[in-house]
Amino acid sequence: MADTKPAAGSVTLERVNTPPAQTWNYLRTNDITLTVPFASRKGDVYFALPRLFEGMECGMGQQVTDWVESQSADAHYVEVRAGQKRTEPIVVTSMDTGVMVRAGAEATVVIATNNEGVLAAGRSVLSPASSAASKAKRGLSESADKTEGSAASTQHSTSAALVRIIAERDARVHVLEFVCANDERQHIESVGITADARARVDVRQFFLGAATTAAGLCCSLDGADARFELTCRYLGRDDERLDINHVVRMRGRNGRTDIRESGVLDGRARKALRATIDLVHGSSGSEGAELENVLVLSDDVVNKTMPVILCDEDDVAGNHGATIGSVGPEQIGYLADRGLTQEEAEALYVRALFDEAVIAAPTPEVRATVLARATSVLGAEVARDLVEGLGLDSPAGEEA
Amino acid sequence: MSERTQKRSQVADVDRSLYDFTYSEEGYERYDDGLTPEIVRAISAKKDEPEWMLNMRLAALDTYHAKEMAPNWGPSIAGLDMDHISTYVSPRTNQAKNWDDVPDDIKNTFERLGIPEAERESLAGVGAQYDSEIVYHNMREDVAKSGVVYTTIEDALHDPEWEPVVRQYFGKLIPPADHKFAALHYAVWSGGSFVYVPAGVTVDYPLQSYFRLNAEGAGQFEHTLIIVEEGADLHFIEGCSAPKYYEANLHAGAVELFVKDGARLRYSTIENWSKNMYNLNTKRARVGADAKMEWVSGSFGSHVSYLYPTTILQGDRGQCEFTGITFAGATQDLDTGCKVILNGADTTASVDTKSISKDGGCNTFRSSVVVGRKAANARATVSCQSLMLDDISRSDTIPAMDVRNATANVGHEATIGRISDDTILYLMSRGCSEAEARTMVVGGFANPVSKELPLEYAVEMNNLIKLEMEGAIG
Fold first, then answer.
1. In a 3-state reduction of DSSP, which class is residue A384?
2. Do A258 and A367 lie in a common domain?
3. Which of the listed residues A326, A354, A388 is the one where a domain comes to its end?
4. Staple partner for B67: which of B59, B180, B340, B407, CB 3.0–4.6 Å?
5. ipTM score here?
6. Domain assignment of residue B97, yes or no
7. What pairing do the DSSP bridges indicate for beta strands B333-342 and B362-371?
8. Cβ of B411 under 8 Å from any chain A Cβ?
9. With an 8 Å Cβ cutoff, are A325 and B408 in contact?
């Protein structure tokens, strides 16, 4: 799991969340190193996922998969029968979850994390290490802090979710991810998806807060005419750390991938986003596109973006784009003419993230999680206004 | 060839006949293969260098042996065995100022490459390196009178006026510890150019250095050091080629460019090493306030290339333009791109690259744009377009951006694809044959780069690509 010998009660996951193709190591963009709790479960026997899920590529890599499997209590397996349109969302309640969406079925999978960990998942929060181990780990963390590619975690509790989804032919899968925690949490989320012929997978991610959010997602479009859409919205502020890795393997013919990422960074936030579209040999007729827009609001922000296209096939089209910048003088002028200060204009961008997250929240519990975070970031009044503006039932103050 | 393959666009591989000729090494001075302190000392002694340079070489050799290659990096260089590379091969001749004084075989080589003719017609000065040593160096008198210095590093080291300048700048922009092959370069460097353009001087015609590696199983390690003083202006052209062997050759040169405040430097390269060459070259420029660095880069040869010219925009309002094209054919794995570091306020960078992959060739475009905290209002755009001409080739783009200033604006776009059938059909409906249509599309694809080159080099580039379309009528 880790190259270095871990202190008792913790383990170091070195260089995880790596993309398939990497850039110069000195840029410290390729990966993240995480210190996470580790409890030996030698001799224990737990329910594991069916073998079918073994070997599935997940966004954060095998090291994280191994760690979660070693720390998880019983894995949770959910199956949606062929042709079934399941209206009730599958809310992830275990660190290790496998979802099988059979041919022609439809399902929504929700992964939501708040200050207490993954919603309704008692075993998703891992205990901090013992005090003796903490001391040893602190040394590890201090040295890790000196490098940008490391995230010290010993002061933070850690939550984790490993979700593997198999979408059979003609299946439709909607995945919703919400990370709305405070600055005392390190959250690790690794998702792996395979899509068979004509399957449609759409993913919406909202990374709205945590001391460290390390999230990876890998989708393999194995069948012909499979579709994958990913929308990722993120907010980084104060000293928060975001490390995101998206990988799409386009293997089947005539696949389509559309990745859209955007976010706002403020304070001393650090973000690294790696997005890879891999047009594998044999994926003829496929098209992949990725686009990221980043709004940087502070000179203390560190924003790293790495949009990658790997192409091993000629009859394909791949494109990517990225824009990184601030609110332009023309836009500020335009808004000033309408009575908005620069701060108010920038706050609108942040509010828009929460607007979208609240609308997307599929259950009252998830909505409450988002609103609680909105209250923390924007204030109770704005959060209440947000609820009322969207015509939602519950006032922010009450739910939050 | 399958029917499907026949229907794809047919672009002839680079025509290498112009470059693929050799002359005997008989009588040449050739050091033993491998890397030892004795070889390094012998090279230094041969050049009668000052002690500081020898010490630098020996320290670099230690660094080379100590450094490991990153395991997650680029195309494999497993076929490169330094125990089978001679780091110094030299014809037994002195440097000439007149082509008639150059030995016939070497003169014939450069005649066939068109260097003397280019010198007569359009260059302010020429340096020609054959294996490890410069064999010809000359510059127009009027340019010399303006105070421009164009000579070899070795000669500059022996000149009391310029030795302190070399010492001040040599190895400062690319330190020996930069990476393993930078260290190798400093241990065994030989040949190259030293150019000094005084403040306010504009050199109307380009200077050109041409590097020819004739020897088999050898390395070329030339060092180019150019200082363009405040308000000065220079266009420098670098060309390189080698005949093909079945034994690995190595090119690990270094180019250090200092572009002072208000100055402009254009650095054009047409690289056409043979397909047994490992081209592990390092180029870097530091640009002052209100100064401009322009790179024009054509990469056509080599078995494996690691080539990422770097520009550090240190002064305010500095500018960088990078225009490049890479053509990877059979057996080639070319990892090319560029890096730009924007440290000054109001700096701008524009990167525009093209790549063509065919016959199983692999292209990797890498870039990094780093905007520092003090680079207020910095602007950078990166555009990368890749053309796949068959389904056995490969093209990857791996850009990275690191932005640490809220007022900076960075944009990136990249596309990968093949020649669209619709485009071909459209052109054919207007009377073009299919071959003509494909020629037009590929020619248009490469045009943004060729138009940046002086005419004769644009012609050379077009010859290199040799866009001969076969009439692949399906």
1. helix
2. no
3. A326
4. B180
5. 0.86
6. yes
7. parallel
8. yes
9. yes
A8 found inside a domain = no
Q: Do both A231 and A359 map to the same domain? A: no
Q: Is residue A3 part of a domain?
A: no
Of A29, A297, A325, the CB nearest to B400: A29
CB contact under 8 A, A311 and B403: no
Please give the span between the terminal C-alpha atoms of chain A, in angstroms, as a whole number: 38
Give the pair of three-digit tokens for residue B438. 């494909």
CB spacing of B404 vs A302 below 8 angstroms: yes
Length of chain A: 400
Domain co-membership, A218 together with A248: yes
> Which residues of B fall within a CB distance of 8 Å from A319?
413-416
Asked, for residue B460, whether it belongs to a domain, the answer is: no
Judge whether B254 lies within some domain: yes
What are the C-alpha distances in Å from A32 to residues A75, A235, B254, B371?
A: 26, 19, 32, 21
Residue A106: both structure tokens together: 């439809």
Tens digit of each residue's pLDDT, chain A (400 residues): 333 344 558 899 999 999 999 999 999 999 999 999 998 877 777 788 999 999 899 999 999 999 999 888 789 999 999 999 999 999 998 899 999 999 999 999 999 998 877 665 544 556 443 333 333 333 333 333 333 555 544 457 899 999 999 999 999 999 999 999 988 899 999 999 999 999 999 999 999 999 999 999 999 999 999 999 999 999 999 999 999 999 999 999 999 999 999 999 999 999 999 999 999 999 999 999 999 999 999 999 999 999 999 999 988 999 988 888 887 778 888 888 888 888 888 888 899 999 999 999 999 999 999 999 999 999 998 888 888 887 776 544 444 3
- Same domain, residue pair A304 and A395: no
Give the residue from A289, A305, A326 where a domain finishes: A326
CA angle B272, B278, B279 (to 5 degrees): 55
Q: Is A279 on the interface with B (CB under 8 A)?
A: yes
Answer whether B55 touches A (CB < 8 Å): no
Domain with B402 in it: 17-423
> In terms of residue numbers, what domain contains A248?
47-126+155-326
User: Do the beta carbons of residue A40 and residue A73 sit within 8 Å?
Assistant: no
* Interface residue A317 vs chain B (CB under 8 A): yes
